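Note to self: keep these together.
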Amino acid sequence: MNRTIAFSAALLLATMSAQAQETGLPLWEAGVVGGGVSTPSYPGSPDRSARGLVLPYFVYRGDVVRVDRSGIGARLLHTDQTEFDLGLGGSLPSNSQDTTTRQGMPDLGTLVEFGPRLKLTLARPAPGQRLRLDLPLRAVLEVRGGVRQQGLAFEPELRYEMRDLGAGWSLSSGASVVLGDQKLNRYFYDIAPEYASALRPAYEAKAGLIATRLSFNTAKDLSPDLRVFGLLRLESYSGSANLNSPLHVRASGTWLGLGLAWTLGRSESHAP
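Structure:
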């Protein structure tokens, strides 16, 4: 399995398992997931990356170890109102040859994010509904001919979850801002002198805002073993720290994902 497919699968699984932290669900589930995802090549890019795939999936909802919509991580503290964990996430690579603004520049590799996250439940307006504040701080590692640390990201997010809308539907929405240190912003927006041209002058990026995000995840149970799911994420780059970079072309971006999950097996025991 190559790294592009692996991280496409992670994104699809994140949407498919939108109810992963609900109590009463099986401790583990396994099956097959298929679908497609389309994202900007990088924040502010004029080009897009699209992937389609069919792959096995696995969800585990242990008391400490979790494999769910948030990625792969370890839950270190859990109460009714507060949760603290260590999480692992990632994003798709981008081939500079396929990106008009980065022709002749190094490719953007697979990015793996790892670090602590504090989750605070702010309100439970009704059964199956929750308003939550997530505060993740993650180191960003690039996997491309080795592993290199590419900075730090902080993405505070206000998330609202509705687990039972009737007819098998669930929905979660979130609003967040993505902040990066100078190293991470330089990874996306720097233009070194050796890659500069008359149309792409040299540029040194600075730390600050990368994007403001509004996201929606939805899923519907078609049967006990079959689920359809979708993802919509709207990104605005207004106010971003590096709008003056020649690599920063678009003022907004959209993520789209759609797929189908078929559960082939699940545990009789329930998640804690």
